[in-house]
Every structure is written in structure tokens, then in C-alpha cells.
Amino acid sequence: MSQISASRPTPSKHRLALLMLLAIYPFVTAILYVLMPLTEGWPIWARTALLAPIMVVSIIYGIAPTIQKHFAWFILRQPRLIA
User: What's this model's pTM, rounded to 2 decimal places?
Assistant: First the structure.
């Protein structure tokens, strides 16, 4: 059996979820404000088919990496080092 290193901090899923919510909510709202007038009259499934890929790509390649890079100290429960 392998031992888990005591020096490695455990990421907080609650903190990551909070940061993701704070970043994604305004982003989704802004995208909806842009897309709704452009897709007026479309069925909901078609609007969702347009919105979902935009959101997934934005979150995976933009929002999540940015949060993890800039807020790793908060997610990993470590004191922030000021350089």
C-alpha cells in the first residue's frame, strides 16, 4: 500500500465550486443577453444546442484554468504568498 503524503494539501471542492459559480453565473447571464435577441423565435432545444457548446468550451479552456491558476492558494487552503 502507498501512503499519502501529509505535505500535499487537499483541494477544497466547496471553495472551487464557489469560485466557479461566481465566475460562471455572470458569464452565462451575459451570453444569454447576447443570444436571446439573436435566437428569438427558436425552439428551446435549438437555443440550448447553441448555448451548451459555447459554455462548455469557455469553461474548460478559459474560466476553469484561470480560476485554478489565480486562486490555487484559496482552493488548496494555503496562505497566499505575496511576491
Answer: 0.72
